[in-house]
Amino acid sequence: MSQEALHTLPGSGSGSVPPTATAAAEAAPAIPHSQTAVMIQILSTVLFTFLAYMTIGIPLAVLPGYVHLDLGYSSFIAGLSISVQYLSTFITRAQAGRMVDTIGPKKTVMRGMLACVASGAFLVLAAWSAELPWLSLSMILVSRFCLGIGESLAGTGSIIWGIGRIGATHTARMISWNGIATYGALAIGAPLGVALLHVGGFAAIGFLALALPLIGYVIARRRPAVPVVRGERLAFRLVLNRVLPYGIGLALGTVGFGAIATFITLYYASHQWSNAAFSLTLFGGCFIGSRLLFANSINRFGGFKVAIASFIVEAFGLSILWLAGSAEVAMLGAALAGFGFALVFPSLGVEAVGLVPAPNRGAALGAYSVFLDLALGITGPLAGLIVGQFGYEEVFLFAAIGALCAVALTLSLYRRSQHYKTDNAN
Greatest CA separation found in the chain? Predict the structure, then answer.
């Protein structure tokens, strides 16, 4: 889910996006588009991202409770059931990029949709095997792994397919709307999943999670492809050391999102509060609002300053969640956490990408993005252990401390960059 944050990186057509995206865009015919035509192309392509993330969002608010309360497993296992998807995305992200280069973005998206279909099918099997908790849990874990593959393929393929259709001059808009589709789908999917659970049970969630990407696959088959461009493959190890501290900052900030996504429903249930899914909707809605309102803030104030402000707002929201005495206060905390988290990826990312020469910026961005996937994969089980020892509230305290550590790290990086500029000036 990380590539969607690129819309704030300057120079959208000059190396600030992955080389495959730029190359694909340049290979497409240079056709002038009206603003309306460009917008139609953008929306018709981010549709696949939206459908993939609807498949992610629909079970997100109910799955931890199903594993913990219905199947009777520990909070650690409940967190693991969510994190398997993120670990799968982490494992397959590099392969998704190579697939785009070799078979093209259209076929990559189609395979991503099929992986999401498989995820929905395994959810249905999990519901049908609920009387055998071990089998139901196994089906859920397989479902989450398939979903992580689908996220990698559909997300990466959609961005590059869209850029190939509309040209490099509209790269920023394409990636911006891809991010809005991502979190918009999560915001809609969470309460929809809760409603489906009450109406049709857990199997209904699986059937919808199967049907939506299947529709996406049919639509993708009918849409025109863009030329396959075989760009240079950049090894992560060449730039990983440079982006490492920025990636650690990103990971520390991502812990809050992982904690909310995994345990907000069980946190609400422990207090006998209602409308837990609405907290996820507020998180996603404020994330989108922050992106739309402050899209140009990084260009105006610099990535470090925006990152510091973002981490502080996120830590404040997570602290409110930790101390919340009512469902309404917890919703406020989730909203502020989403508002702060929105600009974490692009603000630190623009500084990380700037550390390497232009031909290697795609590799730098890829290496940086891995830390988001890794943080989401680790947060679920780790937070589950914290819940088992201390309770649900302390999960958000743990996440707030992580965001404050990110503030200190970013301040250190900012001061180091200032010293570097001063030394070069002298």
Answer: 72
Q: Structure tokens of 332? A: 């406020």
Backbone angles phi, psi at 10, to 5 degrees: -70, 160
Kind plus residue range of the DSSP H or E element containing 362: helix 361-389
pLDDT for residue 380: 77
Q: What share of the chain is helix, strand, coil (3-state, %, to 5)?
A: 85, 0, 15
Q: Are 97 and 235 in contact (CB under 8 A)?
A: no
Q: Angle at which helices 237-270 and 75-103 pack, to 10 degrees?
A: 140
For 201-357, where are the alpha helices, taking DSSP H only?
202-222, 237-270, 276-293, 297-301, 303-323, 327-341, 344-353
Residue of 188, 72, 189, 70 whose CA lies nearest to 120? 189
The Cα 327–Cα 278 span in angstroms is: 10
At a CB cut-off of 8 Å and minimum separation 6, what does 390 contact? Answer: none
The per-residue pLDDT for 4 is: 42
pTM: 0.68
Q: Assign residue 299 a region: left if phi > 0, alpha if psi is -120 to 50, beta otherwise?
A: alpha
Q: Which two tokens stand for residue 67?
A: 């594993």
Instruction: State how far the Cα of 422 lies from the Cα of 426, in Å rounded to an integer.
Output: 6
